[in-house]
Amino acid sequence: MAKDVIIACDFSGRGAVMEFLDKFEDKKPFVKIGMELFYAEGPEIVREIKARGHKIFLDLKLHDIPNTVKKSMAVLSALDIDMCNVHAAGTKDMMSAAIEGLTRTDGRRPLLVAVTQLTSTDETRMRNELLISKQLDEVVMHYAENARDAGLDGVVCSPLEAGIVKTRCGAGFLTVTPGVRFSDGKADDQMRVTTPSRARELGSDYIVMGRPITQAQDPVLAYERAIDEFLG
Ligand code: C5P
């Protein structure tokens, strides 16, 4: 199974992201494009970064009726992305429809992972606003199992949850984990952080790192450090 470091390219526009990627010259890191950049620049930014030779995780977190998600996924799949995601809260039917939409005529498709509960949703909000009375951990694991049952490749989760996700859903079920920081770096707004080497020990398949690389004085050096620590 391929393990890799994915750089969260949380930039507001084309100029900033290209200036950042230019620093890498012949290196082609796996990058994550989120809503901010995608909504600012549209699908052309995905085509342009792909044409430069990068793998792309398109982080748009789809959540709608199955038919709409299926058709939207077909559009995203045609962009030749490598990974994308949906909200597991959309149900197994929606997740299966997403896979159908993503699958290309040759039978191949990008990896599809699910967001279980957003890390910004705590147990109190879940109980009082969403009327979900189970414990947060239990909800996260149940949604992960739904994603596996629907045929998805994995989930986005904390590195601290990677081991239990694999126990419940199988060793081959991918864990894509943000919340990673260097041991001597700052946590920013991430609550529970883990280092790249600890994330490896815990069983993460892909770590997602944004600011420790994008805001570093030398982003290429920071990326190489993340690769060294994570891949060992
Ligand atoms: O800059 P930083 O390393 O905190 O970036 C982490 C990236 O992962 C951001 O793009 C953030 O939106 C995303 N993410 C996260 N926590 C989640 C899901 C996604 O930090 N639970």
CATH topology: TIM Barrel
Q: What gap, in angstroms, lies between the N and C termini? A: 15 Å
Q: Per CATH, which architecture? A: Alpha-Beta Barrel
Give the helix proportion (percent range).
40-55%
Strand share of the residues? 15-25%
Bound molecules: cytidine-5'-monophosphate
- In round numbers, the mean pLDDT is 96
Rough shape? globular
**SS-based structural class?**
alpha/beta
Counted by DSSP, the helix tally is: 11
Strand order of the largest sheet: 1-2-3-4-5-6-7-8
Number of beta strands: 8
Please tell me the total number of domains. Answer: 1
Q: Would you state the CATH class? A: Alpha Beta
What does this structure look like?
The chain has an eight-stranded parallel beta barrel, surrounded by six helices. It has 232 residues and is α/β, with parallel strands linked by helices. It is 45% helix and 16% strand. The model has no long low-confidence stretch (mean pLDDT 96). The longest helix has 14 residues, at 136-149. The chain has one domain (4-231): Alpha-Beta Barrel (TIM Barrel). Helix 5 (91-102) links the parallel strand 4 (83-87) and strand 5 (111-115). The chain has helices at residues 14-22, 35-41, 43-51, 66-77, 91-102, 123-128, 136-149, 159-169, 196-202, 211-214, 219-231; strands at 4-8, 30-34, 56-62, 83-87, 111-115, 154-156, 174-177, 206-209. It is built from eleven helices and eight strands. It binds cytidine-5'-monophosphate. Residues 8, 10, 34, 118-119, 156, 178-179, 188, 190, 208-212 line the site of cytidine-5'-monophosphate.
In a few lines, what is going on in this structure?
This protein has helices at 14-22, 35-41, 43-51, 66-77, 91-102, 123-128, 136-149, 159-169, 196-202, 211-214, 219-231, and strands spanning 4-8, 30-34, 56-62, 83-87, 111-115, 154-156, 174-177, 206-209.
